[in-house]
Amino acid sequence: MAAKSEKDKEKEKKEKEKQKKEREKKKKEKKKAEEEAKGKCDKRGTRNYYQYYDSPDGCNVQKKIMCTTRYGIVAGLIAGTYDVLMYSHVVGLVPILTRYARHMVPIALMGATFAAVANAVQRVRNADDQLNYFAGGFACGPLVALYLRSGHGLIAGGLVLGIIAVLKKEHVDREHAFIQNFPAHMNTIRSWRNDWTLVRDPRDDMLHTCMLKRKDGECP
Q: Which H helix or E strand runs over 20?
């Protein structure tokens, strides 16, 4: 009986060790799957800041809200600067800060509201389409009314922002740029004004080295 009990104990010990190894294996597999999912969800690479489309819609919602809030703060800062310098001409620290807050707070809240509503609607509907963006834009209607101090912004402003959001979503799905990224000065008709090169064109040396002659009227 004693020998049998010892065998049973050894057997139980081996089973416990086996179960422990299986649990550790499952934990490693789960951790690996989470890391892979995180890698697929976050596309920013080596960049140390987050942009809205670094992850798919419905993923990293908190980061998306912070991102759109940041965009709103920047837009409000620009609008507030224009207001103070070109429109209201207020004097004094408190009035200036008040004018900045008058623009920054509503616009920042619009950005946060859009991201929160659009991603929430997507998770509820379990569908990634233009309706989510329209809902996010339309939800900003009350904030537009607050910003413009007019009740017309409640519906009209929401519809306008919803339509703009739908157009943005359509451009993203079709991989088109909503706002074209034109080069600052390269490859434009005025590029010669910004050419401050201190060395000669290496293509001339290459043509000479390769014993090639440029034809008359041929561009380099």
A: helix 2-41
Given a contact cutoff of 8 angstroms between Cβ atoms, the answer to whether 157 and 125 are in contact is no
Domain boundaries, the chain: 60-173
Give the tens place of pLDDT for each residue, 72-99.
999 999 999 999 999 999 999 999 999 9
169-177: long-range contacts, CB 8 A cutoff, minimum separation 24: 169/129, 169/130, 169/132, 169/133, 170/130, 172/53
Q: Tokens 């834009």 — which residue? A: 137
Dist. CA 14–CA 20, nearest whole Å: 10
Minimal CA–CA distance to 41: which of 59, 61, 65, 66?
Answer: 59
**What amino acid occupies position 17?**
E
pTM value? 0.64
The residue to which tokens 């809200």 are assigned:
65
User: In terms of Cα–Cα distance, which of 114, 211, 203, 205 is closest to 166?
Assistant: 114
